[in-house]
TrEMBL record:
Residues 118-189 form the COMM domain. This is COMM domain-containing protein 1. It comes from Muraenolepis orangiensis (Patagonian moray cod). GO terms for biological process: copper ion homeostasis; negative regulation of protein localization to cell surface; negative regulation of sodium ion transmembrane transport; positive regulation of protein ubiquitination; regulation of proteasomal ubiquitin-dependent protein catabolic process. Belongs to the COMM domain-containing protein 1 family.
Length: 192
């Protein structure tokens, strides 16, 4: 019976750590976790357990371990000597937790690593310049222009739209910059 309670407490602790760290639930605190899950444990022992599980969970999440990697990692953790090891019950709890939460933790980490606001969409077309689209002093009406519409937004909000108008030379500069960005990204990806 004690093993069942220990497993439930550890599962609750892992869920609490995930709620706070990966799902940004501000209501979850270390004090709440200790009070609800480990009231008999000293503060020092709880802090050690909490930090250890938080570190292990971070290692698993950052590596986005699949089942095989997780099993090898947990086996290595169980074999550690000198009190730094993990019990089989703890390994089982971690394995069950990761199996059920892997996709959600991964999505959360990806969302946290994105720049906001982000580019959600881009549409463009070539049109003829009209006399109201630019001042009469710049150019005579009737030349081709590129009309770009950028859809920008944060993940939890409605989109905002920015419309740009540029002539052929400006549009070619934009294309050159985008090609340069792509080359730089490719060089980083291929050098890794």
């Amino acid at each position: 019976m004690a093993d069942v309670e220990a497993t439930k407490s550890l599962t609750g602790l892992l869920n609490g750590i995930a709620q706070k760290t990966y799902y940004n639930n501000e209501d979850i605190t270390e004090e709440l976790l200790k009070t609800e899950l480990y009231p008999e444990l000293s503060q020092e022992n709880f802090n050690a357990l909490h930090e250890r599980m938080k570190g292990i969970l971070k290692s698993i999440a950052v590596a986005d371990m699949d089942h095989g990697q997780l099993e090898a990692f947990l086996t290595a953790q169980m074999k550690k000597q000198g009190g730094g090891g993990m019990s089989e019950a703890q390994a089982t709890s971690l394995s069950r937790f990761w199996k059920s939460q892997r996709a959600r933790v991964r999505d959360s980490l990806l969302a946290q690593s994105r720049w906001e606001p982000g580019l959600r969409g881009l549409t463009w077309r070539v049109d003829l310049q009209t006399s109201c689209s630019r001042s009469q002093e710049e150019e005579a009406p009737g030349g081709p222009v590129a009309l770009l519409e950028l859809e920008l937004g944060r993940s939890s909000q409605n989109s905002e739209y920015v419309c740009l108008e540029c002539d052929e030379a400006a549009f070619n500069r934009v294309l050159d910059k985008m090609a340069d960005i792509q080359r730089r990204i490719d060089s980083v990806v291929h050098s890794s």
